[in-house]
Fold Isocitrate lyase/PEP mutase family protein.
Amino acid sequence: MANPALRQAFAQKRFIVAPGVFDMISAKVADGMGFDCIYGTGFGTVASALGVADAGIATYSDMVARMGQMARGCRTPLIADADTGYGGLLNVRHTVMGYEQAGISGIQLEDQEMPKKCGHTPGRRVIPAEEMVLKIKVAAEARTSADFLIVARTDARTTLGLEEAIRRGLMYGDAGADIVFIESPESEEEMRAIGKAIAKPLLANMVEGGRTPILPAEKLKEIGYAMAIYPAIGFLAAAAALEKAYAHLKASGDSIAIGESYGFKRMTDLMGFPDVWNFESRWATKAAE
């Protein structure tokens, strides 16, 4: 079930910084670092699991399995991307129920047409705001605990303008969303306007190389935001490190110069090998007896 610590963090007015996680290694690394929340990125999860674009190809079954695995494997509350809810109102209800049962603490739903597209790429189209309002109401009704948070995202800014995006954000908050997420504002001035207009907790999406300026957490809080997600930071760093390591291996035929940059022992500790060895040692002794 949902972890109540996340709602408590919002109630205490702590600014929440949530790193993007996309597989169990990234999730476990982030889990040990003291964040209030981790964010299950759709882009990164689809890329790491399927090796394809975040363009509506992944299914509900793909995502609930992967996101649930990360949520159950971590102590830190996880908010997970759920695209459009994978269909109509009945699909949204099923998605919310499944995500909550999987141990996820918050679900992100967006108002794009299906198939959806990554929020910082071109060609996105949105459904009528009234249809999204119904999705949010269904989501609020479907959850069994108020600790399971609903993040309502609008992609209207890019195609319909900032005024329409703010109008939708207000509607979605009134419909029952706990957190409002206006995707891809294009300047600090636009972000300030969003912060002034919407009283519900606001989420900022900090994507390196995306449409929105990257602002420090202190600045985001000052202009009215309650939370920032960094969905790409993990998989961009991982891809850069892998490219460097593999290029060296290809060029030199060895890994000597790279060495243990993270450390094999640290990885075995992270994956729980000491517990395995302790278990095996105890039961080997009992078997010998």
Notes: The beta strands are 16-21, 38-40, 78-81, 106-110, 149-154, 179-182, 202-205, 227-230. Residues 259-288 form one domain. The radius of gyration is 20 Å.
